[in-house]
Amino acid sequence: MREWLMQRMRDHSRLHAIPELKKIEVLDEVTKCAAGSFWHAQCIVDSLEVCRSVAQVNDMIRDVPRDLETIHYNLLNRVNERSEDVQLIVSMAIRWLGGALRPLTLSQIIEAVQIELGHTPPLCLNDDWTVVTPEDMLMLCGNLVKIDDRLARLGLGHPTVRTFLTKQPPEDETLSRYFFDAHAIHRDLALRSITYIMTKDIEKAIARSYTQAFMFDISRRYSIVDRCPMLTYVFEGGFEHLRHYTQEDDDAIDLLVLLQNHISEKPDKFREMLQALHDRTEDTPYQWIVEEKELVLGILVRYGLPWILKRYLLRRRDLAEGEEKDKLVKWAEKLGRFDLRDMLVEFELPELVEEMEIVSDGPEQAIGGSEAEELKDVIME
Q1: How many helices (H) and strands (E) does the chain have?
Q2: How many CB atoms lie within 10 A of CB 157?
Q3: Angle between helices 251-265 and 267-280 (to 10 degrees)
Q4: Residue 106 φ/ψ region, left for φ over 0, alpha for ψ in the -120 to 50 degree band, beta for the rest
Q5: Distance CA 215, CA 34 (A)
Q6: pLDDT per position as a tens digit, 204-258
Q7: Could you give the CA distance from residue 269 to residue 297 in angstroms, rounded to a whole number?
Q8: Which of 101, 186, 248, 339 has the smallest number of CB atoms closer than 10 Å to its CB?
Q9: What dihedral angle (degrees, nearest 10) is formed by the CA atoms of 164, 166, 170, 173?
Q10: Using CA of residue 53, residue 59, residue 61, residue 64, what is the dihedral sign?
């Protein structure tokens, strides 16, 4: 470790200027504090970059944190010293890296942090939430992240980072924004993945690919994925977040209905998109996304939990009655979704309560307020 640390200091743009004897003192203290953890040692050495005098180096080494929790808080505090937009970019980056179900590249993370949640078209990526260069993302996140140069994959800097960020958040709101619930994060990433597919940015990438292919004689399909790197993650892992979606609400269903309508209005756009993915990832069956007339149902049968499919069927009673229900049971069984099959076998639609005009001589005889809400809850159950 000592040789590695010495080389880092000598290669550093500023730390190499520290006198050799002082470097040795620093190495002794850092090696003792890090207790064999290269990441811990790297965090300490990198923190010395702010020093503008040898006296400052002495002070920082004297007060060097000996526990990982303090190291983690120091990393977050360093981010908080930057502007609000940088704080948002970093918080979204570590949320994606902490909750992703597939490895993410640097270019994917840069695009992922720009995804805003919304239900009102046109949906667009937020250009204010991006970085000028890929190197800026690494610099802003610091030791919270690390990149595998060989595979070009980005990940959290150390296994303890995720453990730290998923524990009970602190009361300080400026720090709590970086923390996330290990289960609830999948709801957020599922909604962002579905939203991403509908953004105007993908349409622009498809349009630009025509020009680029004509001018430079390259594959249009490769150009689409290069301009929209999150496409591969969303189709390979984005929908899978629905399998970990524990909060029972209709937000995902609402977005999936919007997606179904969006695809039916612009099927050619999605055929181009899916063909680009077929070229990049061979033998990956995405075509059903444009061919499935009941796309919401198709996604939920493949990826949804029983409760979310049940909530959707309460909206679409026609899909849960008679022969349609039998087809659905067989479909779930064919896909190996026995949890859905068992739910469907036992599932019975509640009786519809017809709306009635109630004539009342006084407010005590009318159904309203909390009683109306209770009646609505009974129907949903």
Answers
A1: 22, 3
A2: 21
A3: 100
A4: alpha
A5: 54
A6: 888 887 665 444 545 555 578 888 999 989 988 899 999 999 889 999 999 999 9
A7: 21
A8: 248
A9: 120
A10: negative
